[in-house]
Amino acid sequence: MKKQIKKIYHAAIYVRLSKEDGDVAVSSKTESNSISNQKELIRNFLKDKKDIVVVSERVDDGYSGSSFERPAFKLMLEDIKKGAVDCVIVKDLSRFGREYIDSGRYIERLFPAMGVRFIAINDGYDSLDGKDQSDEIIIPFKNLINDAYCRDISVKIRSHLEVKRKNGEFIGSFAPYGYQKDEGCRNRLVVDPVAAGIVRDIFRMKLHGMSQDAIADRLNDMGVLSPMEYKNASGSSYQTSFRTEERAQWSAVTVRRILENECYIGNLVQGRQTTPNHKVKKPVVKPEAEWVRIEKSHEPVVSDRDFAIVQRLLKMDTRMSPEQAEVYPLAGMVVCADCGAAMVRKNVCAGGKRYRYYVCSRNKETKECTSHRIAVERLEEAVLHLLKVQVSNVLDLKQAMEKISDIPFQELDIKELEKRIEQKEAEIARCKELRNMLYEDMKDGIVSKEDYMELHEAYTKRRDMAEEAVRKMEQEIKDILASNTDKYRWLDYFAEHQNIDKLTRNVAVELIDRVKVVDRDTIEVVFSFGDCYKEILGSLEHAGCTVVCDGQGRIRFEWKEAV
């Protein structure tokens, strides 16, 4: 009689712990205590198992069980395919995975087909013993429970993070360049003085006419560390898949991201991306209406005004020749007065002279419009002259406002707001009246119940919107009385340039919206804050002042009564 030789299994110990399980080490230890405990439990189990030899230990520390895309698990599968492993041992089914369908596929189909023995110690399951009727029910049921647990944890984490976002707490892993996490509260951003200075320089260079490429080149030439290198130099373990060189350099893309980031004016915008569910990890971009935006949640690095100007500049076509370091003063701002198309700058050499002029781009491409040609020097001189006139007008406007001290200028704004509040309150009363009439019509059978519900909802929504408008206007009045409004701050933007003698890019983008070219002798300059300018003129006329224009753009004020 031959003695039967017992098969020796070559086993892989597999242990896993996710961050959601709450026991990932935060100290300098390379493994969490739970990982060690899992290994110890498995080793104790194997002490009297003479038919099992451990050939490898695979550890996924910090990986979710909702997906089998885990590095150590993939290495274990490679060992199985090579024939080096034919037994897998885990503490329990939840450590193997929490995804119901794939867990069942591995345990019930793939492992048996590959001749792999599977052992889940705490669940009392060993595929070598064969499956009895209870295993047919219990194992899939336990996998289902583990899957449901993972889903429940995911929902709770998503809900918790959404609450933190809406409370204005920063939940990102790394603070944006220019900020750092507050040591006392890791969910609050504070200014990093060194990096914030670079951010201000980037905005300043953009306002002075430099392109994103030129800014990036300037920063690289100065040896300024890029955001990634700065994070690593600061002790952060920041990594990215976009790195292509040994040392990450500044690029036009990096500069543009900084210029477009609302974080630098104190706004915290989070929740731009999400994943469909806890099983699908590929991120998708959410509609902008669903982003969580908390304004003025932290200290700004640049002013709202500079940020707004830069956003306008980024939308302009400001291409320049390679030899130029900065764009021209009016680049992207000159348009044809007839068709509205952008005017393009041309350089032509003739007779030993160099001529520079702007021409309508539509005429240049399709001949559907006239050229509207105008020399660059002639255009810039005319714009500078009109800019000086506008600055002078604004200075006179400020003096006129100071004259009406017995009629505080704030009072004019308050009266206008009070007038609008009265209109909205009348609208609210009318909505209430219509709702009451609607109920009577339903009782009398004039309108059906379905029509009543639909109209009632419409009147209620209209009333709510009016009430919200009233609340906002009342808050505006409070801000005006408390001098919290910066409605007239734009006057100072012009006043700062009262001694202007040269048209620069910085001045042009700050004070000019666009320049319309009618012909070589006629242009129209549309200044920034044009609506505000007209509003003040109208308010002065209400206060007893007549505004007189001399035909050259200069204005003067004549008072009907002494003030």
Describe the overall structure.
- The chain is an alpha/beta fold.
- Among the domains are: 9-163, 3-Layer(aba) Sandwich (Rossmann fold), CATH 3.40.50; 179-314, Putative Large Serine Recombinase, Chain B, Domain 2 (Hect, E3 ligase catalytic domain fold, Alpha-Beta Complex), CATH 3.90.1750.20; 407-491.
- It is built from 17 helices and 19 strands.
- The strands form seven sheets. A five-stranded mixed β-sheet has the order 2-1-3-4-5, sandwiched between helices. Strands 12-16-17 form a three-stranded mixed β-sheet. It has a three-stranded antiparallel β-sheet with strand order 13-14-15.
- A hairpin with a 7-residue loop joins strand 6 (179-181) and strand 7 (189-191).
- The protein is extended, with a radius of gyration of 35 Å.
- The N and C termini lie far apart (127 Å).
- The model is unreliable at 22-30 (pLDDT under 50).
User: Looking at the structure, what is the overall shape?
Assistant: extended
How large a portion of the residues is in β-strands, by DSSP E?
Answer: 15-25%
Number of strands: 19
Number of helices: 17
The CATH superfamily of the domain at 9-163 bears the name: Resolvase, N-terminal catalytic domain
Gyration radius, in Å = 35 Å
Q: What does the average pLDDT come to?
A: 83
- The level-1 CATH class of the domain at 9-163: Alpha Beta
Q: What percent of residues adopt helix (DSSP H or I)?
A: 40-55%
Please summarize the sheet with the most strands: 5 strands, mixed
